[in-house]
Amino acid sequence: MNPASLSDFILKSQSIQYALFQRDGALICASAELGEWLSQEISAGQTLDDLLPELNGMTVSIAKSIKHGETVEIDHVARDGGGYISLQFLPFDDRFILLVKDTSLLGQMEQRLMQQRNELSLLAAQLEKSQLQLMNLTTRFVPGQVFDSLMASREIPTVKGYKREATIVFADLRGFTRWAQEREPEEVFYTINLFLAQAVKIAQAYNGTLDKFLGDGFMVIFNAPHDQPDHIRRAVQFAGEISRLEHGGLRFGLGVHSGLVMAGNIGSEQVMNYTVLGNTVNLARRIEEAAPAGEVLLSETVAQAVADCCRAEPFGNLPANGAFPLYRLIQK
């Protein structure tokens, strides 16, 4: 096998065809099968633009690079008739050689990979958007701290509880029922939402867990589900701010008590709510029921725990509960 035939054999085995050009871009000769690849008749004197219209005017910059003795490589040029070719321009004395390699399979694979990457990026963006929508929706019905615990846990939530210390705040709008009887439903609806929206904002500022709305009142938990070493102080300061809310002559009466509770999910495996139960909760509710409008009543446990930062004065005993002293928070 002579050297020329050997060269043709090597190039063909690598799916490579060639063309030889003058430096001015005129074709001198080309391999026998290049015309078949390019689906056209090839003849001496053709220009690079004639041979490869897919280059779309790139021949001027290619010629400049070749003139400076630079090799030019262009990967995966899409053919008008389908498929892909890769081009390599090699300066050679006063001429240059064009090597043409069929990269249809590789080019198609890269196109598919690019399409798949784009589809994955789109899916990831859609998933992120759905997650944000789900989070936004869920946190409107599930307390933020409870939602964070659910997201952090790798376990499926179940109906179960555990003992822990917690401070409970109950609040109720005094005289709201009588007030509402004299108003249109739209005004009643607006007013209760005005109060509750402010209460939620303040609860979030103190990282309290809004357990539930109770008609014209609500219940907030501190130190559950997350640990809060200063939970009693947080609860009292929160209650103090709530007691100052006022609209149309309406104000909250509040009760605060701290002690052991059972915290966890109650309900069924299909529908459950996070809450706290126990005598501590019941006493907190009864303390709230004894509180006048705009006042915060504390249990003795709470009053003693915040004596270093809050002032409180005796308010008598909890009705029908024997010796269970109450204290009124003195507002600054």
Task: Describe, in plain words, how this protein is organized in 3D.
This protein has 332 residues and is an alpha+beta fold. The protein has two domains: 3-102, Beta-Lactamase (2-Layer Sandwich); 159-329, 2-Layer Sandwich (Alpha-Beta Plaits), CATH 3.30.70. It has eleven helices and 13 strands. It has helices at residues 3-13, 34-38, 48-51, 59-67, 104-138, 144-152, 176-181, 185-205, 231-243, 279-289, 300-305; strands at 16-22, 27-30, 72-78, 84-92, 95-102, 161-173, 209-214, 217-222, 252-267, 272-277, 296-299, 312-317, 325-329. Strands 6, 7, 8, 9, 10, 11, 12 and 13 form an eight-stranded mixed beta sheet that branches. It has a five-stranded antiparallel beta sheet with strand order 2-1-5-4-3, with helices on both faces. It is rod-shaped. The relative contact order is 0.09.
